């Protein structure tokens, strides 16, 4: 252990979600000596409720104090990408161009190598197909969504996407971390970074806890990729950020209704949907595993629907919420604004219309939970257009997204990480040439 932390490193990457994994891979490919620190476990994904709960429940994620909403953040190798629904949305070019950032080259390169396409019809489950037909009949432009899934490895009738795919079908940031390690990067799991080490205002390393001890590692470049909650906390703990950071959470509700002529409940969620960018609303099918469905039904007070999982159609309503609330040193707090509530009312009305068209009865909506916390270290405020928070210190995760979001962030964060890694690798080569 001591020898690993005392090695000379060119860069330390804190966190293994899409942004951190993409940055680490790019640097390692270029020959940089990279240390990757992950506070969770790197155990193989088993696709079990127990493992998922250990990565995502409060204490790993965090309770939001307002409106009885739950924020979930994946803690483990791959971050939240190990537990998400594998849905990809391209970065909004205009949003980043406003800050002088062109993600098109990174996006083109990633599209050429990643599994990134709508599911074939054979993998679209009966509930998703029923919702798609009803949505189109109700006048919605309901289309298949791009999924980061390898169809040849995916299994019809499987429900494990959100538990962590054990079959290698769902792409996650683990893939990029493993590639970085093949290029010489060092990964230390169960390593919780406490603060960034600074000398004369410049980042020179990190302090972290591992195996009951406190350790330090040094490098000329530090990249924080701790997520929309973790990164602002680390900046504050290092004396570089405010104690309270406003953020967005991309809140979601599920609208559910039962039909009598279907037996399902085991399929890839978010196979298809519709987006309304002008209104800040997105809809998609959302078939969940039995325990998660039961928890949502109970949360909504619908004890009578707990046993109806196999007959219940579910539609996700996600909104682009206003930035507000605060990420504090030990807590997270955010309430819905009147605008947020109006967007939810509109989206829930759309979902009810689709379920009515599908012949569903006993329709109800759950309370909301937070899907993608971010915007807490925004480009143009917390970091510059190069994602730099201080000399030698960069941030690359959902916290840097510059405006309220409402989109699946994985592909955007991969693009930002690829761009940042290439920039840092180029700077390293230039520095080496000058020193010679």
Would you give an account of this structure?
It comes from Massilia varians. Belongs to the GMC oxidoreductase family. The protein has 436 residues and is of the alpha+beta class. Helix content is 29%, strand content 22%. It has eleven helices and 20 strands. Strands 3, 4, 5, 11, 12, 13, 14, 17 and 18 form a nine-stranded mixed beta sheet that branches. Strands 1, 2, 6, 7, 8, 9, 19 and 20 form an eight-stranded mixed beta sheet that branches. Strand 7 and strand 8 form a beta hairpin. It is globular and about 65 Å long.
List keywords for this structure.
single chain; GMC_OxRtase_C; 8-stranded mixed sheet; 436 residues; alpha+beta; 20 strands; 11 helices; 9-stranded mixed sheet; FAD
| Amount of beta strand | 15-25%
User: In terms of structural class, how would the helical and strand content be classed?
Assistant: alpha+beta
Largest sheet: 9 strands, mixed
**Percent of residues in helices:** 25-40%
Total number of beta strands: 20
The total of helices stands at 11
Radius of gyration: 21 Å
Shape: globular
The averaged pLDDT comes out at 92
Model regions low in confidence, pLDDT < 50 over at least 5 residues? none
N-to-C CA distance: 33 Å
Give a topology summary.
Layout: H1 2-6, E1 9-14, H2 18-29, E2 34-37, H3 49-56, E3 62-63, E4 70-71, H4 93-97, H5 104-113, H6 126-137, E5 143-144, H7 174-182, E6 186-188, E7 192-199, E8 202-210, E9 213-224, H8 227-237, E10 245-247, E11 251-258, E12 272-276, E13 281-285, H9 290-299, E14 312-319, E15 324-327, E16 332-333, H10 338-357, E17 361-365, E18 369-370, E19 388-390, E20 393-395, H11 410-435
Parallel strand pairs: 1-2, 1-9, 2-6, 4-18, 9-20
Antiparallel strand pairs: 3-4, 5-12, 7-8, 8-9, 10-15, 11-14, 11-17, 11-18, 12-13, 13-14, 15-16, 19-20
């Amino acid at each position: 252990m001591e020898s690993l932390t005392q090695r000379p490193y060119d860069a330390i990457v804190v966190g293994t979600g899409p942004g951190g994994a993409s940055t680490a891979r790019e640097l390692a490919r270029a020959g940089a000596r990279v240390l990757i620190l992950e506070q969770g476990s790197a155990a193989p994904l088993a696709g079990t409720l127990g493992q998922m709960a250990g990565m995502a429940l409060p204490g790993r994620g965090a309770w939001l104090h307002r409106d009885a909403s739950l924020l979930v953040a994946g803690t483990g190798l791959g971050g939240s990408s190990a537990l998400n629904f594998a849905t990809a949305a391209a970065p909004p070019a205009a949003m980043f161009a406003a800050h002088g950032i062109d993600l098109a080259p990174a996006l083109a390169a990633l599209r050429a190598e990643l599994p990134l396409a709508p599911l074939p019809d054979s993998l679209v489950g009966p509930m998703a197909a029923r919702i798609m037909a009803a949505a189109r009949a109700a006048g919605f432009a309901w289309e298949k969504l791009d999924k980061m899934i390898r169809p040849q490895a995916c299994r019809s009738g499987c429900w494990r996407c959100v538990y962590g795919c054990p079959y290698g079908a769902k792409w996650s940031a683990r893939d990029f971390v493993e590639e970085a390690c093949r290029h010489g990067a060092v990964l230390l799991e169960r390593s919780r970074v406490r603060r960034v080490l600074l000398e004369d205002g410049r980042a020179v390393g990190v302090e972290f806890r591992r195996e009951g001890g406190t350790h330090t590692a040094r490098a000329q470049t530090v990249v924080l990729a701790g997520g929309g909650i973790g990164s602002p906390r680390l900046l504050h703990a290092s004396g570089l950020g405010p104690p309270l950071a406003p953020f967005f959470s991309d809140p979601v509700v599920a609208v559910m209704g039962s039909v009598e002529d279907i037996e399902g409940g085991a399929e890839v969620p978010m196979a298809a949907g519709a987006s309304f960018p002008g209104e800040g609303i997105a809809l998609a099918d959302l078939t969940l595993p039995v325990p998660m469905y039961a928890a949502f039904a109970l949360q909504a007070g619908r004890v009578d629907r707990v046993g109806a999982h196999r007959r219940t159609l579910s539609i996700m309503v996600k909104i682009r919420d206003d930035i507000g609330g605060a990420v504090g040193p030990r807590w997270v707090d955010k309430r819905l604004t009147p605008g947020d509530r109006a967007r939810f009312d509109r989206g829930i009305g759309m979902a009810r219309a689709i379920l009515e068209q599908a012949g569903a009865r006993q329709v109800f909506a759950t309370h909301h939970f937070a899907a993608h916390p971010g915007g807490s270290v925004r480009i143009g405020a917390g970091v510059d257009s190069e994602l730099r928070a201080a000399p030698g210190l960069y941030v690359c995760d959902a916290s840097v997204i510059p405006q309220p979001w409402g989109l699946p962030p994985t592909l955007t964060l991969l693009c930002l990480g690829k761009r940042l890694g290439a920039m840092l690798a180029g700077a390293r080569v230039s520095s080496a040439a000058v020193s010679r």
